[in-house]
Amino acid sequence: VRNLLFVMADQLRWDAIGCANGDLPFATPNIDDLAARGVRFDRAYTQGATCGSSRMSFYTGRYVTSHGARYNEIPLNLTEATLADHLRPLGVESYLIGKTHSVLDPFGAAALGLDPTGATAQIRADAGFKRVVRYDGVAAANSPDSGQTAYDDFLRSNGYDIANPWHDIANSGRRNDGSSASGWTMESGLWPAIVPDELSETAWTTDLAIDFMRDKGAAPWCLHLSYIKPHWPYVVSEPYHQLVDQSDLPVAKRSAHEVGGHPAMTAFQAMRISRNFSDDAKRAGVHCAYFGLIAQLDHHLGRLWGELERLGRSNDTMIVFTSDHGDYMGDHWMGEKDYLHDSAIRVPLIVVDPSAGADSTRGSAVNVPTECIDVLPTFVEAVGGEPDASLGGGWIEGQSLVPFLTGVGKRTGSDQVAVSETDYGFREMRDALPELEAPLLRARSITTERWKYIEHDLFGPQLFDLDNDPDELIDLGQHSGYAAVRSDLTDGLHQWRNSLKLDPRTPAHRFARPGLGAVAARGFPIGFWDEAEIQTAKDARDLLR
Amino acid sequence: VRNLLFVMADQLRWDAIGCANGDLPFATPNIDDLAARGVRFDRAYTQGATCGSSRMSFYTGRYVTSHGARYNEIPLNLTEATLADHLRPLGVESYLIGKTHSVLDPFGAAALGLDPTGATAQIRADAGFKRVVRYDGVAAANSPDSGQTAYDDFLRSNGYDIANPWHDIANSGRRNDGSSASGWTMESGLWPAIVPDELSETAWTTDLAIDFMRDKGAAPWCLHLSYIKPHWPYVVSEPYHQLVDQSDLPVAKRSAHEVGGHPAMTAFQAMRISRNFSDDAKRAGVHCAYFGLIAQLDHHLGRLWGELERLGRSNDTMIVFTSDHGDYMGDHWMGEKDYLHDSAIRVPLIVVDPSAGADSTRGSAVNVPTECIDVLPTFVEAVGGEPDASLGGGWIEGQSLVPFLTGVGKRTGSDQVAVSETDYGFREMRDALPELEAPLLRARSITTERWKYIEHDLFGPQLFDLDNDPDELIDLGQHSGYAAVRSDLTDGLHQWRNSLKLDPRTPAHRFARPGLGAVAARGFPIGFWDEAEIQTAKDARDLLR
Predict the structure, then answer these.
(1) Which superfamily, per CATH, for A3-499?
(2) Residue A433 phi, psi dihedral angles, 5° rounding
(3) Which residues of chain A does B181 touch, with a Cβ-Cβ cutoff of 8 Å?
């Protein structure tokens, strides 16, 4: 493997691709093609339940609590090592096209006198990647540079010479009467986007990637190609707008028992977006647009795979396709993400390894829980390296997925769990809760082969039996018959918490016995009574005992 | 309060000063004088059980798990805000004379292109302090610059013109036959140091501080005056060497029941230094030298208080006197520190506030558990400031001690606990344990008014009833009658763990409701169905619901 193509969608549910869901009312042939050529991790969980926290886990290979960027716009510590930092010593530069949601750590920059406009600051602001084109889409659209992104410039140069083509053209629908429906409203999903498909954000992002691959020629690269779709605004160009008929939509995964149940869910359900998504008529229009955006993404991915093939790079490029999180889409009477059901934290994860060693696993699916922090060490292993200890490589918390690709040494036992975290203190629902210390609004889930257990700091726990209740509709969190299960899973979270690698500055060798021996051997023996005792130990070649 | 004098001893037990221990076989009049002028925190606990981890907690106001510098020579993350960073915006520069045990974060420096010889790098390497003279004593003595410290130069300029005067003169004893006993051996404690008192490390460090205060005149300052004594080598100059008679020494706090008990203690007790300290004949000589070093420190502190008075600074200088940790000195059949008995983690802590508001508490002692991370916010409050949110001020985990000084608003209830941490994977005992993942060798204690509970990742817990067993000789960790107590204290640690401020990059306002309102108000409403719904919410002046 020489090149790494790290493709990320935004807000793409695990079950919204054909290879994962036979009942999907539209086709995703190009994503399915990837699954046929590689391994699909059917139970991949993001570590964070929102864009920023999830992405920082992907980029650092570390849990949210470890890297500390718990939500959007929270900076990663300036000195956290990222994928790009781990690949650089192995001769692979990492480039960015699209979204990262990362920001520069302002205290770190100020404390260290870092020029915030300099090259180092930009690389850290981009999570270590070299920027080809950074484009955060909707996350940038309401900022002071609204209308000033590279995509806005692209639309202006294609005849839309207005102040904010992102909003007015790409993220507004055209009603039958010719008026515009803003993508900031959900009703826009009822109408086709004003922008034609070939000028859409997804098309443009793909074009940038194709240009990048052509320019690079035979040089090795890692490209993080990070689409901002199918994230809202749920507005999509023709022909994708008419692709799915409302009568073919899946039924929302929800039950009357979920109303008035767990207090955190109750607060979530009270948010306006949840209320609107709980209205089937409203949900239907949005859901069709969401599926259309995925079909559009699939189409353009086909162009990408084709170009990779034409360039002769299919044979030496590892492809990872994934998403930062899902979308409730009305499941559990909720909208958006930020909570811990599969609708929000279970994501597509497909890995294509072109090496002959991976031939035996092509087209297979892995059904044990895996984690998105596993992607980073997978890439490092794929290019033949080991995480560099001097970069904090020993502090990566993910585990390489390569054993699943080669069929050798798969995970067993206690490794088969996934932990995800959320902090719902950042969302509107906070306003419905009493004034509380921030950390209390946190929750974390541990998912095993059978169970999902959600531990809350403020409320009681939740428990779902995924074997018998895969849609997570029956909360066993207070059921007396499951106390032992809950206790085991509490222990699992306790073990997880104590094993977090919170001190990435500790050189790995400091934990190794040879290192301790070396310290003793360099002549710093303590605790000896006199020179004779030291000499005896030296003669025995053991200054440690 | 205008000036801050932050005096730290190294390895000074809580009970080795006269004001804390009426049975002490020697006097510490100058430390006692401080206690009479201020408040003595009788149950102050360090957060780390070894120099580096403890000091980084003092300097950041954060628990060891939060700052991540779990042991000596582990760098504080380059972007952790320290005392100096918190005081700087308040107009107070912080200076260093003596030891910090801090090192520069090499990954951070490399990642950010920081010149490792530049001013910023030196300040970060010195934990944010401006260096007057940095002197890590024994921690530097065996490094490549052995014999090249400022103190070595001082001794050479005073007639000891040899390669390593630190070792040969200041840290070697002179036997009766005229030969030298190296301070690297414990037997050196039997003999007087070759160096005369007035040229000792303690005298020299004090002289530097006196010069500093004279030079500063009326300008405000914070001085971290950090002695490296009474830390081993246990060698002290006359007249302190003969000060205490072996027959007057305290009996070691140990019991036959402690042998072969808890496996972590068993491994500790098997270390050579523990074996030697468990031999009463050997312990006695060392202990006399240890006491002598404390008496010597007390004498020179008297010179310091006198100079402060002469300079007219006693009336506007807050003085904190403390230590980074204790010394087992044979208690529990152990030597050194690194574990969680009071002998190791309970330290002297005296705070003198010259303000009139503190007059009512002078000479008093506080008996509830307090923490060394409380010193930083105490200093910030004393100079009239509040922690600066932009510097991560909201992420300080200590609480100001000022209420104890003014007698207003003392801590109550659940605040009256102290948490300390150790990671014994760094010590020789690791060699006696099976090869294990590093985090498993960690333990943490929670100390309440009555109990101390020690939770281990690898072994079962320990529990001591401090009311009935203040010497911590009876381990109730497995006693069936105390399951409820252990369960409560486990919950306390769970609560502590979940409240750790591990994400210091989150701006404090992100957690506040007004901040959320502001986000909504800036026009980024999501979840609305159409413009009419938005208008209705705007009319109701509530975009959140």
Answers:
(1) Alkaline Phosphatase, subunit A (3.40.720.10)
(2) -105, 160
(3) 530
